[in-house]
Amino acid sequence: MSSKSIAVDLNDEELKLYHALVESSCDWDYLITGDGNIQLISPACKRITGYAREEFENNPSLIEEIIHPEDKDLFMIHQGMERDSREPLSLEFRIISSDGSIRWVNHICYPLFDEENLYRGRRVSVRDITERRRIEDALRESEELHRITLSNINDAVFITNDDLEFTYVCINVDYIFGYNRGEVEAMGNISELLGENLFEMDDLRQRKAIFNIERRVADKFGNEHDLSINIKSVSIKDGTILFTCHDITELRRAEEDLKVINSKLDLERRALREKNVALNELMKQIDKEKNQIIVQIQCNLRRVIYPLLNKMEGIGNKTGREYINLLKKSLDDIISPFSNKLENDFASLTPREIEVCNLIKEGMTSSEIASTFNTSVETVRNQRKNIRRKLKIANNKINLASYLQNY
């Protein structure tokens, strides 16, 4: 008896054998007679559907009742095809088990004919494929995720065999190379795209992966791209080598631009150092000329002015001689470094305070200084206080005249 033509009228031995097979089957097997009755239901129906075989025997329509509503029309079409087909037919659909869970099943039915080739019913085998469908769905989701990921990244991904013949070309290959997937696949070999001698096969076998190989290639339109290429040994269907190409053209251009900028900065820094050297030399020359002018003034004062003052001192009265003597001391202070040094070190001192400092340094009292400047003694005392404060000796018991004489 073949699976395509099995007589319903079995002898006792054949019936016992078939019954034993049904009882031990992992699948849900049963017979549907020509008049629609269900016979020889295997106990596996309980494991798959949650319903015992007695429930199916008492209610033959239960088989259709447990089919998922969205799959019932498909099952009805399948049943119609069963009556006209002399070949086994299969269908995958969902059922709702007794606990309300949804399970996927593979339904295969074999038409049964008697010895006179008359249709007598069909043998049905139902297998639980829920786990298989879950794995397939997860695999499809994973493949879809990888497809979406690969199509949205800028890197180009290729897989080849050991002869470097393409077994996979990513969909977004045109982003870098300008060629579409079909054009790259037509090249046949990745060397046509990336050039010869990209790596040594023995090196890859030993290291399993080679990273950051840099190669400059031209795209479809002749534009050059700098690529960083990673190569790994894999085993994906017929592919054994995975290539990942990352475009670093902009990075290399930025690095070149940075080199140019740094070179310009180096030139500017060198020019600035040279200018600083020249400026220092100029300041030294100015200081030298300034000192020369001071020396010249000192010489002129001593050669021209002092002799005149000495003559005037000999012919004047006492008061006149005192003023002449004061004038000589003031001139001495002007041409001496004391006033300049005091002015440079204490910029907050006013010109009048510097003049007072000169007189205090010469030992004059507040009364004498007041008489010299035709001002009050109280004003001179206030000036002395301000001088002490600005010289930062206000709170020290230091004689101002001694301090200035030693300054």
In short:
The protein is an alpha+beta fold and 407 residues long. It has 17 helices and ten strands. It folds into three domains: 119 residues, PAS domain (Beta-Lactamase, 2-Layer Sandwich), CATH 3.30.450; 95 residues, 2-Layer Sandwich (Beta-Lactamase), CATH 3.30.450; 102 residues, Arc Repressor Mutant, subunit A (Orthogonal Bundle).
- Fraction of residues in helices? 40-55%
What is the total number of structural domains? 3
Tell how many strands the DSSP assignment holds: 10
| Distance N to C terminus | 133 Å
Given as residue ranges, the uncertain stretches (5+ residues, pLDDT < 50) are 1-8
Beta percentage is 15-25%
What's the CATH H-level homologous superfamily of the largest domain?
A: PAS domain
The CATH topology of the largest domain turns out to be Beta-Lactamase
Outline the biggest β-sheet.
5 strands, antiparallel
What's the CATH class of the largest domain, please?
Answer: Alpha Beta
Name given to the CATH architecture of the largest domain: 2-Layer Sandwich
Spatial shape = elongated
Query: What structural class do helix, strand and pairing data support?
Result: alpha+beta
Overview of the structural elements:
This protein is of the alpha+beta class and 407 residues long. The chain has 3 domains: 119 residues, PAS domain (Beta-Lactamase, 2-Layer Sandwich); 95 residues, Beta-Lactamase; 102 residues, Orthogonal Bundle (Arc Repressor Mutant, subunit A). Helix content is 54%, strand content 19%. The protein has a 5-stranded antiparallel β-sheet, with helices on both faces. Strands 7-6-10-9-8 form a 5-stranded antiparallel β-sheet, sandwiched between helices. Helix 11 runs antiparallel to helix 12 and helix 15 crosses helix 16. The radius of gyration is 56 Å and the shape is elongated.
